[in-house]
Structures are given as structure tokens and as C-alpha cells.
# Entry
Amino acid sequence: MREGSREEQTPGTWRTAGAVLRKDLLLELRGLDTLPAMVLFAIVTFVIFHFGLNQATIAGQEAAGVLTVTLLFAAMLGINRLFVAEREQGGFDAFLLAPVDRSALLIAKATALFLFLVVLEVVAVPAFGLLLLGPSLGPRLPGLIAVLALGDVAFAVIGTLVSAIAVQTRARDLIGPIIGLPLLLPALIAVARGAGPLLAAQGSGSPPGKWVAILALYDVVFALLSYAVFDFLLED
Amino acid sequence: MMYGRGLRGLALATAFTITVAFALVFFYAPLDANQGFIQKIFYIHVPLAITALCGFVFGGVLGAIHLRTGDRKWDIRSYVAIHMALIFGVGTLFTGTIWAKASWGHWWVWSDPTLTSFLIVMLLFATYQPLRFSIEDPERQSRYASVFAIVCGAFVPLNFLAVRLAQAYVHPRVLTLTGGNLPGSMRLTLLVSMVGIALLYVTLWKYEMAAKSTRMQVRALRRLLLGEDSVAPPKRSAAPS
Amino acid sequence: MDPHPAIELRGLVRHFGERTVLRQVSVSVPAGATLAVLGRNGAGKSTLLRILATLLRPHAGEVSVLGEPLPRQAWAVRGRLGLLAHEPLLYRDLSGRENLGYHARLHGIAPRRVEDVLDAVGMRERADEPVRQLSRGMVQRLAICRTILHSPRVLLLDEPLANLDPAATELVAPLIGRASGATRVLTSHDPRAALAEADLVLGLEGGRAAFVTSPDRVEPAALERLYA
Amino acid sequence: MSLFAVAPALPLHAAGKYVAGAYIVFLAIVLIYVAIMATRLARTERELTELRRDVEERRRQEAEGSDPSDPSARSGRSDREREPVA
# Structure
């Protein structure tokens, strides 16, 4: 009933996701539309916090809060732009015309956003250590990386979902943050509270297990949920 | 579908139950040992909160059915469920702040995890209508709204878990919802009040559905009798039609 | 030869909200034939093409493409049809080669084919420039490459020759013209050019089929009314 | 019990104000909702009356026979009516 050759060629979900991700990274590399803005935004925000709080150094929960909120807002910039090229340059149609699994788009976009966040943090966290953090960053780094990585997964998954919803609205720059921020609030709480003890003056090396568990739970639930509903955001 | 059927009986049952509940609150339930008369707010605040939260989750379930069946009437039901839950939620926040002011002296207390999580849930669902309003294609609007309803319905319990754990000290809850340490008379009062408010939610939901379906039938009739052009195109709206 | 017609529409209806864009459109296109869809802007031509391309779902009526009913079997049809729409569906910041490479990967096609189609439209020399730097005619040539990259058996062509000069038109003829051997549905603002290419003509007026007939039977008066 | 225990129980006359406030808020929300629904009901009623009037007018015109100068007898109207409403 169908040509055999076609069927063999149809790429699987992961190969498709790989193709989309590769295209997204290439687009970012060419345009540099998103990442530099996210990094610059984060660093400017640290400076703003320095003046806003009128403190040379901060530590503990205060430091964790400033870091997490800054990263969340910087992530919002990336989230807003995640699907703009697809929407404005026909990427959605092109993808839908291909004989591929639609979930691959979710996987690819969430991975791209995750990578953007990692790059952001590779610059912003050391900058934070340099500009604002009282205690030295070095010994706290492994625990902080663990908490931030889990937080990034939550930001990436929910961010992708929110971005896919918002990009089809008229006021997408507004709808994205007003839906995204409340949805990300539990993740923000968990990251901030998980990082708080780490950044204290006499901080321990490992984050509180409770918050790591909450973050992991949040990641898993929303990953499954996004996977279940994402197809409905694409069809017409 | 006639949503109006059974509405009168339901409305009367609701009015009766709420009247009984209020009578129990003021003439039957004993004064709370610690809180005194203030505790009477509890009988309205807690049922409102629980009904609102259930309404949000209910909206998510209806949204899921909409996506499964592709039938727009489930989207309308989901919309009305969330719309009603928002109204009940506003009532919850108002009664909650009044209670906070009366018992702690402040209009808002962050130390109460339930009130705080409720605020977050309300902030999230407050974006439901703007989201709908900002999508012009009605089909896409209902599909996206259902996705939103499902995701946010699942968010409700998770959010409560996270906020609850975030409170450094969770004060022992005199007023646990299971009523574990609530005297029997108080528990009965709460139960009746709970049933009354839940009935009110169902009544208003059906009422709104009946109104919507009537209006849509009038439009359909007009189209049938006078032709396609006789119906003015609907204004852009957050409500499904 | 396929016993089924390649494209079959029966009582197709599509709404946008309360507005009806296609009303009871029925037409049947044999395999290898060309259907020209004529009509004014807003008559429903693009909507019809998008439904055939599985990008929009029909609201009533039956649609089948290559024997597969839509939208149920849409997955079986994707990859066997090519859509050339108003938008080129190319990323402006990527080069033509990168864009086509991406589509080749989505369709599971060997990269060599990209070079072949680039050659065929004479775009090989400029295939590494970002699409945004190219003229509209060149972008259209790349869009044609994208459309035929996976050798589709059904071609849905919305104004295929827009922005193309006569030389380019000749160049793309073997790819999207009758010589391609594919079943074609094409729309055009210019009814004469479309009629010359077609085996069957569908005139759309306000979303309903004003006529379905062979091109030599189209009455000039009917055509005039269509575009009046 | 700690927090509730520290919070002094308000005397009845002060507490009454707050309790009354809470219950009034509840009633007010319900009443405002009913009022909004009442205006919507009025609108639906108006639409129904208009529909009735339009249909009757149409009936009368049809009974009088189709007048070619009648502006409402637009071309293409009649075949549109026959079409089932989807």
C-alpha cells in the first residue's frame, strides 16, 4: 500500500529531534538573537541588585534568591523567543509536512532551551560569584550545579510548553511571562531553597535532599504532561 | 443538550442547604476555644477554597475530555468550570484575608502555606481569560485553553506540596480539613457548609451553561431561518461560542 | 496504475470560527492529472491546499489523498506530498543548502539529493548565502527545491511561478510541471496560464464550487464572473 | 496550637465585624453574579424578540409574493437558506 523505500527512510523520534536541535543551534549561532541577550540581562540584573540592595556582598538565602530570580527572568527572554522563528518563517508548517513524530519538536526545543540555560549559567554563575557572592564559590560549585541542572530541566520543559502556547497568541511577549512565571514558581522555590544553605557563609557542600527531590518530581511530572499535550498545540 | 433541566430543583436544594449551614454556623456550632467568634469565618472560607480548587481541577478534566473527543461542548464546560472556580477563588481570597486580619492582625500572612499557594493558583488561573482572548481562531483558542486547563489542573496539587514544604515552620493546624481534632458538632457544621457551597458551584455552573447554550441556540436558529449573513459575526471574546 | 483517484473530495466543509470558508466542495483528480483551482483572493484556494496538505483538518465531508482518508490517515500521506505555499517555509538566517539539508534530514533523504535539486534550479553557486540575502525569485526557486526534495507524488502548488522570470520558469518546469509525473493541484491569479496547464478546473466562489469541468469547457462568462 | 494560642481571641463585638464582613463578601459575590446573569438573560430575550420579528416580517413578505424591487430578496439568498447549517 505504501512504497517500502519511503517507510524505511522515515526518521525516528530521536533522529528527528536531533535534526531540529541541530537546526536550532545553527540558527542561534547565525543570528545570535537569544543567548547574548540572556547573558547580558543576567549580568545587568546582578548590578541592579547590587544597587537595589545597597550591598557589596550577599550570602545565604538572599544570595540564592537573587541568583535564582535573575536566572528565571533571563530564562524568560529565551522562552519568549524559542518558537518565534518557527512561527514567523514557516517552521511549524515545514515540520508538520514531514512524516515525523511531533513530540520530536518538544524534545528538540526543550533540549535547545536547556543548552541555552547551561551556557547562560556558565557565564552568569561565575559572574555572580565575582560581583555579589560573599562566600567563595569554589567548594559550593558541585552542589550548586546539581540544583541548577535540575532547575534548568524544569525551566526548559515548562518554558517550551509555555512558549509553544504563547507564540500563537497576539500578545505573545506578555502571555508567555504571565503564564510561565506562576507555573515556574514551585521550581523557583525549590531551586532557591535548595541553593540557600549552599551559599551560606558556613555552607554545607550538598543541597538539602528535600528540595532536590521536589525538583526531580516537578521535572518528571511536567515532562510527562508536556509530552501528553504537546501534539494538540501543533495540529490545526 | 438542555442544561436548564433540573436547575430549579438544584437551586432550591442549594438554597436550603446553605440556609441550614448558616443556621448551624451561628446557632449550633460551639465557639472555638482559642479563636472565639472569629472562627465562624472558617465555615465559609474553607468550603469556598476547596470548591474553587476542585473547580480548577474539574476544568482540567473537562479540558482533557475536549482534547480526546474534539467536541467543542467540552471546551465550553471546561471554560465555565474555570470561570466559576475563579469567582469562588476571589471569595476565598477575600474571606481569607479578613480571617487573617481578625486572627493575626494583618491582612496578609505569608506563614500560612494554604493561603499562599491559593494566591499562586489564582495568579495562574487569572491568565486563563487573557490567554483565550489573545487567540483569535476559535478552534485554536479552545484547544490551547484545554491544554492550559490540563497543565494548570495538574499544577494545583504540586504547587500546594511545594509551598507547604517551603514554610520553615508549619504551624500545627488546628483546623485540619480532615477534621481530625475538630469537635463533632464543628465537623458536622463544616460538612453541611461544604455540601452547600459545592451545590452552589454546581448550580451556578449549570445556570451559566444553560444561558450559554440558549444564546447559541438563538444564533443557530437565526442562521437557519434567515440565512448565514443575518448573524453578526461574534465579537472577539475569551468565551467560547 | 492506482485504481483510486489520487485526490478525492466529497462535500468538503471548513469553517473558521463561525465563518464558512469552504462549502460542500467535491472534486476528484485522477493520478497524474492536474487540477487548477481558480478564484478570487479569499475564495478558499489556500485553505483547500492546506487541507490537502494535512495542515488543516476538514470539518465535514470526505477527503482522501492517495487513497488515504484525511485527517485519520494524515501520517501516511505526509512525506508523499509537497506543498509550495505563499511562504517559502525557509529560515531566513540559514543558507539554502542548510535549509534543504534540514528538510532532507526530516524526510530521511540522502544529502546528495540536495545537491541534485540545487543543480536542477541553477542555485548551486548561491546555495551558501543566507536566504534573507537572496532575491524573491531565488527564494522561490529554493522553495521549489524544498517542495520536490522528497520526490512527492502529489504536488500542491500555490502560485508556483510567482516572482520567477521566464528563464527560471523554464528551469523549474521539469520539477513541478506536467513532466514531473506527479498529481498536481495548482492555483493561480492568472486563469489563462492555469487553464493551459490543467486537465481539470475547479472554480471557487465564496467557498463553494462554481464549476468543475475540463479546461476547454470553461465558459469565458463563468470565468469572468469568478474574477468579477 | 502555638500560633492560634498566641493570637488573642478577639472579643465578640470586634470579631462580629470581621465575621459579618466575610459573610457579606460571600453574599455580595453571589448577588453580583446573579445581576450579571440577569443582564445576559435580558440580552438573550431581546435577541429572541428580534428574531421573532424578523421571521414574521419575512413570512409576510413571502405571503405578499416576491416583489422584484424588494431589497430583501437578494440574489443567491434562497439557495443559501436551503443549505443545512453545519
About this structure: The interface with chain A takes residues 50, 53-57, 67, 75-76, 78-83, 85, 87-94, 98, 102-103, 105-109, 130, 146 of chain C (CB under 8 Å). The radius of gyration of chain C is 17 Å.
